[in-house]
Design goal:
The complex is a heterodimer of chains A (410) and B (483). Chain A has 410 residues and is mainly β. Chain A is built from 3 helices and 20 strands. In chain A, β16 and β17 form a beta hairpin. Chain B has 11 helices and 23 strands. Classes of the chains: A mainly beta (410), B alpha/beta (483).
Chain lengths: 410, 483
């Protein structure tokens, strides 16, 4: 069966996993404690994330180079994100008669920012064949969450607490359905989350969380419908282990797991060559196939038309390892540098049916009621990568630089 | 403007607003709602007003008696929290046999992270708290309550020590327990701070002049028994990492580095509220006898250059050269004043458990009066953007100088000024000083108001003045509360 290869257009994993994990905590001084009961106050955080995505995971869990074989190895999608976060911790119910709430601090958080993504030249040129714009910049989604800390408990040398939070994600930026890349998403999410913080002898800090992300639908997918329209829900889990060398220096390693529940659905696939008809050589070269269709002497041009769906992928999954160091300045500032490396994953791929026609009205009306347009002379099934954060899984590392500042601290 | 730009603008405003949500103390009154507060007092007790907020202090205290006479315990909280911090301690002490009327905690500060408390600015509040509790219990019990036990935490430790020194109240504190106090500095406090936390940072920066004047003449003055309780490991308490792990210890106190010695790791906020540490505190309190409620307090009597205690059962604890005598200073029945002046003394009666206030004396023999003593100060009071070091000079070189920054009138037992060690004024305060001659005459009090103002600082470096240095400084000389 002939195969149609198309572009791999993945929104970076960094974007997929950073805000979406709905981290309720915030690293500040001096405990490197994402989910620890934080002191009351207002915290701000600025995070810069950089990645050069050269590889992504396919649905089998293999890593493949972006764009290969249609573009030379080394092509990439470059990403820069700036996240801004404000965290408030306090207790609006303190000294009231409301049980539990009066004794347990609450927190709320807003996260958003902006970013850019840009494909290298070969990918951009390739994308233009499909009528897609090669890069994007703009606003990230807006994440708002509120939650409550549990009590703190001691068990021998261990001190621990939990928290519960729920995050709401609202698309904020302009979503470009013609773009290969988008900074923001085009669907809402609700993410309840449980988290745990533990300390061992005041030296080892463990933070872990599990979150279930309910995702809404994307009624206007981008890049020819290769972003899912029915977004699968996700499980997110992460654990972070930090070691305190001194009040100034911390090192941490982390593990992050992200997996869809069920399948992503695609209902509006339209991705196609912008300029048609296609000459046999062009078609066969573009598609990288040697079909008999290409050698039909009676036809000197072809038209392709995708069937819009529905299609389903096999779900997505990503696992990361991270390592970082933090420097704490007094009680007000933290500077952190972290590298995250995907160690396994599974990206979204779907097998899309294309009708091949000899006329522009492809596939034409189905007057014979056989499920195929009358003008279709053949069908091709081709495997497309799903794109953007709900579907793509980057296999390339990313770097994160984070600065945390606590207002009113010395 | 494009939709994206509008969204960006909206997002920016949302983030900015979310960082500026007014505190509950501001928001609720603006909405016509009362601010919930902890107020667990008997109906006949009126809590004093905070010197910082000028509002009645929240807290707890009073109620059922345990049925025995016991020195009341006053809990003093640290920075940016309030009396509720001590609720777990109250529960534990009640379970150990204390009565509600013996356990008190009042919120002396702002109770808000935006407004840092300061040692100097809260001294007057501690004075009001102790006076109020003593007065209330004296009326309720029908016998005078002349001593309290104080358990303090964090900034409350240095605060209470400064209160005892500034108001000469050592004799009123039977036991003092300081948990995790920055007695020798807190590493997070900067000597060059900005913002509302300036005063506390100036005070508690390691090596600060403020700490030097608190510690220089003795870290455990007077008849008070001192205990400190702290981490000591350098890991448990975030404010005292190595090499500051022993900052909370006081020379002459029973210093219990709990985590280091007991293999625990209670953190800064946990430390004084855990059963294990509270047991240690209760044991320390139980080791001192209760004062006799109807006994007369001892006095220090002077006859020429000789001092003796009254009654005879009391001992005289004295130290020369300006140093503070301590409870452990060997007691004597009589003392001849020597050339090393001034001598600081208190009388402690082991039978009654009561002590006299601290007093200072200088030898009269050979003294020739230089006339009526007067005092001068450099710099003079006024509005300053930064902390000031004030030098005092007496017209009579034989006179010694004492001062207060607590609003109380200075006397011989007040904080001692020493040449070469200027008074460090880190907060808006009233400095009062007197010179006291060897024959006991006092100068007219020197009263100086210092306005160490953040508004002054901000007015100096406003954006307008940075663009145009000739622009007038917009500061009316009225410091905002909490700044």
């Amino acid at each position: 069966m002939p195969r149609l290869h198309t572009l791999i257009v993945g929104l970076v994993l960094a974007l997929a996993l950073q805000p979406a994990r709905a981290q309720a905590g915030l690293i500040f001084t001096p405990h490197l404690s994402e989910y620890a009961v934080q002191a009351n106050g207002t915290y701000t955080e600025t995070t810069f994330i950089f990645s050069e995505i050269e590889k992504v995971f396919d649905r089998e869990g293999n890593t493949v180079r972006v764009g290969v074989p249609f573009v030379p190895a080394g092509a990439s999608t470059d990403v820069g994100l700036a996240l801004f976060k404000v965290l408030w911790v306090g207790n609006v119910f303190r000294d009231t008669g409301i049980p539990y709430l009066r004794d347990h601090s609450q927190f709320c958080r807003l996260i958003s920012g902006f970013g850019y993504q840009q494909n290298t030249e070969q990918i951009a040129d390739r994308g233009r064949l499909f009528g897609a714009r090669p890069g994007s910049n703009g606003l990230l989604d807006l994440y708002g969450l509120c939650g409550i800390y549990s009590s703190e408990y001691r068990l021998g040398p261990v001190k621990f607490n939990g928290l519960f939070a729920t995050t709401f994600k609202e698309p904020l930026g302009e979503y470009d359905t013609d773009a290969m890349l988008n900074i923001g998403t085009n669907y809402r999410s609700v993410i309840p989350q449980l988290a745990f913080h533990g300390e061992l002898f005041g030296r080892l800090f463990v933070d872990a969380t599990v979150a279930y992300q309910f995702n809404g639908d994307n009624s206007h997918p981008s890049f020819g419908g290769t972003t899912p329209t029915r977004i699968a829900d996700w499980w997110n889990a992460e654990a972070n282990f930090a070691w305190k060398f001194s009040e100034h220096w911390f090192a941490d390693i982390g593990y992050s797991f992200h997996k869809s529940v069920g399948h992503n659905g695609y209902d509006q696939v339209t991705v196609n060559f912008k300029d048609q008809p296609l000459a046999p050589d062009t078609l066969c070269a573009a598609l990288g196939l040697g079909s008999d269709v290409c050698n039909t002497p009676a036809l000197d041009a072809f038209y392709l038309a995708p069937r819009s769906g529905p299609y389903e992928d096999r779900g997505v999954q990503a696992t990361l390892l991270s390592a970082g160091i933090s420097y704490v300045y007094r009680s007000s500032s933290v500077l952190q540098f972290r590298i995250a490396k995907p160690i396994s994953g599974r990206g979204s791929q779907i097998d899309v049916i294309y009708d091949v026609c000899g006329v522009s009205d492809c596939p034409g009306a189905d007057r014979n009621n056989n499920g195929t347009g009358d003008n279709s002379i053949s069908q091709l099934s081709t495997t497309l990568f799903g794109v953007q954060e709900a579907a793509a899984a980057s296999a390339s590392p990313y770097a994160e630089l984070r600065f945390v500042y606590l207002f009113w601290a010395p | 403007m494009s939709p994206t730009a509008l969204r960006a603008l909206g997002l920016g405003l949302l983030l900015a607003l979310s960082a500026c949500i007014p505190p509950r103390q501001v928001l609720l009154p603006a909405l016509g709602q009362p601010v919930p507060e902890l107020r667990d007092f008997p109906p006949d007790y009126t809590p004093p007003r905070s010197a910082e907020t000028e509002l009645p202090m929240p807290g707890f205290g009073g109620g059922e008696s345990s049925g025995v006479y016991r020195t009341p315990v006053i809990f003093v909280h640290g920075n940016t929290v309030s009396a509720r911090y001590w609720l777990p301690a109250r529960e534990y002490f009640l379970a150990q046999g204390y009565g509600k009327d013996e356990l008190w905690a009042l919120g002396h500060g702002w109770d808000h992270v935006h407004y840092f408390d300061s040692n100097d600015l809260s001294v007057a509040s501690i004075d009001r708290i102790v006076n109020s509790v003593m007065d209330y219990l004296s009326k309720r019990r029908g016998v005078p309550v002349r001593q309290v036990d104080i358990i303090s935490h964090s900034l409350g430790v240095t605060l209470v020590r400064q209160w005892m020194m500034q108001t000469n109240s050592f004799h009123r504190v039977r036991n003092f327990i300081g948990a995790a106090g920055g007695n020798h500095g807190v590493w997070t406090a900067s000597a060059y701070p900005r913002g509302q936390q300036r005063a506390a940072s100036w005070e508690l920066a390691p090596g600060s002049p403020w700490l030097a004047q608190l510690n220089r003449l003795g870290e455990t003055p007077g008849p008070t028994r001192y205990m400190t309780l702290y981490d000591g490991s350098g890991w448990g308490d975030v404010f005292y990492p190595k090499p500051y792990q022993d900052s909370p210890a006081l020379d002459g106190a029973y210093n219990l580095a709990f985590n280091r010695e007991r293999g625990r790791w209670f953190d800064h906020m946990d430390l004084p509220r855990e059963p294990a540490t509270m047991d240690a505190m209760l044991k320390f309190l139980a080791d001192s006898g209760e004062p006799l409620p109807r006994a007369r307090a001892p006095r220090v009597l002077r006859s020429g250059d000789r001092l003796r205690p009254e009654p005879a059962s009391a001992g005289l604890h004295c130290a020369a050269g300006g140093q503070y005598p301590q409870r452990s200073t060997p007691a004597v029945q009589e003392l001849s004043l020597g050339a090393e002046s001034p001598v600081s003394c208190f009388a402690l009666d082991p039978q009654s458990g009561l002590a006299s206030p601290l007093l200072r004396f200088a030898r009269q023999a050979g003294y020739r009066s230089a006339g009526e003593p007067t005092l001068t100060a450099t710099p003079a009071g006024g509005v300053y953007a930064q902390a000031q070091e004030v030098r005092l000079e007496s017209s009579d070189p034989a006179a010694f100088i004492t001062y207060t920054t607590s609003g109380t009138a200075p006397a011989s037992g007040s904080a001692l000024y020493q040449a070469g060690h200027p008074i460090y004024i880190a907060a808006p305060l009233r400095l009062q000083a007197v010179a006291i001659t060897p024959d006991g005459r006092q100068s007219k009090p020197l009263v100086l108001d210092f306005d160490i103002s953040l508004e002054k600082e901000e007015a100096m470096y406003s954006l307008e003045r940075q663009l145009d240095p000739t622009a007038p400084e917009q500061y009316a000389g009225r410091r905002g509360k909490g700044r």
